[in-house]
């Protein structure tokens, strides 16, 4: 009994000490210029221009020629996805890509929603803007900015958008109806890449905040996964009075208290509110977290240090690009998929959807600029920048779910998966 009292007292003191060191801060809302050369004296064109995704026979012919020249390297016996993308299964993927995948049809699907571009801080920013097809009398939609990450794109939101903008017609409550804006991170897809060093998530957050103001939204909700999580968190740090709600489906836990709870979780997990699923995912920590990070983070070390080197190869080879990107859709969906010959890819995705995402990197030539985002954000060292040590302001609704759940209670099921 006395031992439990002592341990509880020590734990209480430790929690108080760690919490007292975590301070909520805002970040300074500065300005930037990421286009070529110096900022021109003339005022930047703030017009919003319609944009349409296009392709050509020449583009498709060039892709097919490069696929036809793919040099096959046989995998080791019984290696599955333990060494990376299994080249036997890769042959199936590229055969489908070459002979059955219809890029022109996928371009029509991409154009299903309205696309736009606008210049902000010297960069042409691409986004889709989807308004509800109908609204009940006296209702206004909630503006929602949704931000992707790497190796994703704005396309990853296509199937969730109808559930957010037209919930009633999809069997959901229409208590919350959203107006959805999905931009492409600069250097990804159709958004122009920075010409200068130092373009990080804070700069991106500021640009997306300016985008929302340009669209007429003074207050809005934001959602992000992967890099989008950090970008949206930075937006909440920059302009907390404008962010009404923050939803993250990849939580970047950097606070002192959160670190403490992970360390003490095996013994006091219930005290911290850990569920059985949390315990299953986190512990034993050495296997579930440490070894997993070591095994799956090789790409990050490359992209944090020399993104342009590997980028040269990926920009030249569509097959190499597909293997590099799609391997992440395997192991990041389920680490156990590495024991499967096909990486489990078609258990969760269609080849059409997977290859459409790859094509957004291939046709725009943005794999290098997308990888540079790692060097700009992580290549300076861990916890060296102010935004890494600040937390979002507590006045807003912050909803974090690692399973991709919930903008609101009524949308939890819609957002899963």
UniProtKB/TrEMBL annotation:
Major enzyme class: hydrolase
Reaction equations catalysed: 11,12-epoxy-(5Z,8Z,14Z)-eicosatrienoate + H2O = 11,12-dihydroxy-(5Z,8Z,14Z)-eicosatrienoate; 2-(5Z,8Z,11Z,14Z-eicosatetraenoyl)-glycerol + H2O = glycerol + (5Z,8Z,11Z,14Z)-eicosatetraenoate + H(+); cis-stilbene oxide + H2O = (1R,2R)-hydrobenzoin; 1-(4-methoxyphenyl)-N-methyl-N-[(3-methyloxetan-3-yl)methyl]methanamine + H2O = 2-{[(4-methoxybenzyl)(methyl)amino]methyl}-2-methylpropane-1,3-diol
GO annotations of cellular component type: endoplasmic reticulum membrane
MF annotations from Gene Ontology: cis-stilbene-oxide hydrolase activity
Pfam family, one: EHN
Coarse class of the protein's main subcellular location: endoplasmic reticulum
Its membrane topology: Single-pass type III membrane protein
Coiled coil: none
Function description: Biotransformation enzyme that catalyzes the hydrolysis of arene and aliphatic epoxides to less reactive and more water soluble dihydrodiols by the trans addition of water.
Family: Belongs to the peptidase S33 family.
Protein name listed in UniProt: Epoxide hydrolase
Gene: EPHX1
């Amino acid at each position: 009994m006395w031992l439990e009292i002592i341990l509880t007292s020590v734990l209480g003191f430790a929690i108080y000490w760690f919490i007292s060191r975590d301070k909520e801060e805002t970040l300074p809302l500065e300005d930037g210029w990421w286009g070529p050369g110096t900022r021109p004296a003339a005022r930047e064109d703030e017009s919003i221009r319609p944009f349409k995704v296009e392709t050509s026979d020449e583009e498709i012919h060039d892709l097919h020629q490069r696929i036809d020249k793919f040099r096959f390297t046989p995998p080791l016996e019984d290696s599955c996805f333990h060494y990376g993308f299994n080249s036997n299964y890769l042959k199936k993927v590229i055969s489908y890509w070459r002979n059955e995948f219809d890029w022109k049809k996928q371009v029509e699907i991409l154009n299903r929603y309205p696309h736009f571009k606008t210049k902000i801080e010297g960069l042409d920013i691409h986004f889709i803007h989807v308004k509800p097809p109908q609204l009940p009398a006296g209702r206004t939609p909630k503006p929602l900015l949704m931000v992707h990450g790497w190796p994703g794109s704005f396309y990853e939101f296509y199937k969730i958008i109808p559930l957010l903008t037209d919930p009633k017609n999809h069997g959901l409550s229409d208590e919350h109806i959203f107006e959805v804006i999905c931009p492409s991170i600069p250097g990804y897809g159709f958004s122009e890449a920075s010409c200068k060093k130092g373009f990080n998530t804070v700069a991106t957050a500021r640009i997306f905040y300016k985008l929302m103001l340009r669209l007429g939204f003074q207050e809005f909700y934001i959602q992000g996964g992967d890099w989008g999580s950090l970008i949206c968190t930075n937006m909440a740090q920059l302009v907390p009075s404008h962010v009404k709600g923050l939803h993250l489906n990849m939580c970047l836990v950097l606070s002192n208290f959160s670190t403490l709870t992970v360390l003490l979780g095996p013994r006091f997990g219930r005290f911290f509110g850990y569920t059985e699923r949390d315990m299953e995912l986190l512990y034993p920590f050495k296997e579930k977290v440490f070894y997993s990070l070591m095994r799956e983070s090789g790409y990050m070390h490359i992209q944090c240090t020399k993104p342009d080197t590997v980028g040269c190869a990926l920009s030249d080879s569509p097959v190499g690009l597909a293997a590099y990107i799609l391997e992440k859709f395997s192991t990041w969906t389920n680490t156990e998929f590495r024991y499967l010959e096909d990486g489990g890819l078609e258990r969760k995705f269609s080849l059409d959807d997977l290859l459409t995402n790859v094509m957004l990197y291939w046709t725009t030539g943005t794999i290098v600029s997308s990888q540079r985002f790692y060097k700009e954000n992580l290549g300076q060292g861990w916890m060296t920048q102010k935004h890494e040590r600040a937390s979002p302001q507590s006045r807003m609704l912050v909803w974090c779910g690692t399973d991709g759940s919930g903008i609101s209670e009524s949308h939890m099921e819609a957002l899963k998966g």
